[in-house]
Amino acid sequence: MMLNIHNLSNTVASKPILKGLSLTLNAGEIHAIMGPNGAGKSTLAYTLGGRPGYEVTGGTVDFDGQDLLAMAPHERAAAGLFLGFQYPVEIPGVSNVQFLREALNAQRRARGEAPLSGGEFLKLAKEKAGLLRFDMDMLKRPVNVGFSGGEKKRAEMVQMGILDPKLAILDETDSGLDIDALRIVGEGINTIMRKPDRAVLLITHYQRLLDYVTPDFVHVLAGGRIVKSGGPELAHQLESEGYEAVAA
Amino acid sequence: MTVATLPTRKDEAFRYADVGALETLWPLALQQIHVPAGASDVLSIVADSSGPEAREIEIVLDEGAQFDLRVLNIAGAYGRIAVTVTLGKGARFHLGAAQLAGGDQTLEVVTEVIHAEPDAVSTQVVRSVLAGHATGTYLGKVAVARGANGSDGSQSIRAMLLDRTATANARPELEIFADDVKCAHGCAVGELDPQGLFYLESRGLPPAEAKKLMLQAFIAEAFVGAADEDALTEAALNALGALI
Lengths: 248, 244
Ligand SMILES: Nc1ncnc2c1ncn2[C@@H]1O[C@H](COP(=O)(O)OP(=O)(O)OP(=O)(O)O)[C@@H](O)[C@H]1O
Ligand SMILES: [Mg+2]
Fold this sequence. Notes:
The complex is a heterodimer of chains A (248) and B (244). Chain A is α/β, with parallel strands linked by helices and 248 residues long. Helices cover 39% and strands 29% of the residues of chain A.
């Protein structure tokens, strides 16, 4: 089992959001989570990432045999968790290249692996940027500063390629992408993550990304818990009939 | 030459000073620098002595002269750098200063920049990172004399508090007696963006490294373009490592 979320509850600013959510992902699987605005999808992602302010009030999360909730955010990353942000954050004055090299090497150190040299890192970064057709010059610019909405999402996928996680939780990575970028990002996710020892949790509102990244399971998150699960056909049904009809 | 009587905190330029520490250093030697017409000069000061340290510097720039002053203030206990600059016609002065303090340190940069004649340009960039119970102060007066038309003076003053217990004092001041003068000052005291920190940590950087990365960019603004930018940045980063 890659990820086992059992009965997870939390509060944000003392407001209960997740209310006993359970979900299991096995290695090799891609799961999609859909659900109405405000249902708690980003809250689930942030809580799994360990964001301050997202207080767990009950339940357990096992990540690859480890107690995820006991780890600090950077330890979760080193253990193989990647969080693709719905709104990637701008970091003025810090270049993507410097940031990602330090982040990757911090992860490698934590895992007892040797750090990559500047040259080795650049080679890796070029390869992953190429995969996402992302301009290397943009990787030399400050993190997300002045990037368009779609560029930020594509940059997130370059980061994922470089960091090479076991489990990626991608929060609306498809929003803001143009038609070509959507295909490139979809193919990127498949290339990087569709492997027997990897897993993906895709949070999305639309079928369009799922046309490229076919999920093994689709779940509906509403009111802080999973209210319905099914195969890829569930996403089609949701798209044509809406949440109210399908998940009532 | 020395600076005469021991000041008290009633003196404007010493209102946040550690007068007890100053007393042990008094009288201060006045460092005088004179740049003749058309010439240019640079000076980098790394105030890093383990005990208290205070400097008084007087810079006179003749017509068209240029001066680039950089300061890294990381002195133990107490560190004070006071600079008075007088700008002749069309002269240019730049100050880039960073102060990094923790514990009970008191650090200050005090400037008086006098645009005595027309068309001179002064720019000041001061970045302070303050942790623990430290105090970081910037007192800076830009004075534009009567008839010094076409003066351009700017002050960009920012402080980052790593702990709520640290104190930043920032007082940029303008005194303008001329026309057609362009003076701008910005001053802000903030804390590290928690969203940015979480973003960096979520990629695998331990909290201290994430903070350091964000602060490095902040401090770099003081040293950008310096002749010894790399050395200053490295010294600043070492001091930063000790703070976090
Ligand atoms: N900092 C906060 N303070 C108070 N309420 C919050 C905070 N953050 C999130 N919430 C609330 O938590 C609920 C869940 O928000 P969340 O962002 O997880 O929804 P979502 O399912 O991702 O929605 P969307 O599809 O719009 O992205 C919302 O009602 C939101 O207003
Ligand atoms: Mg959301």
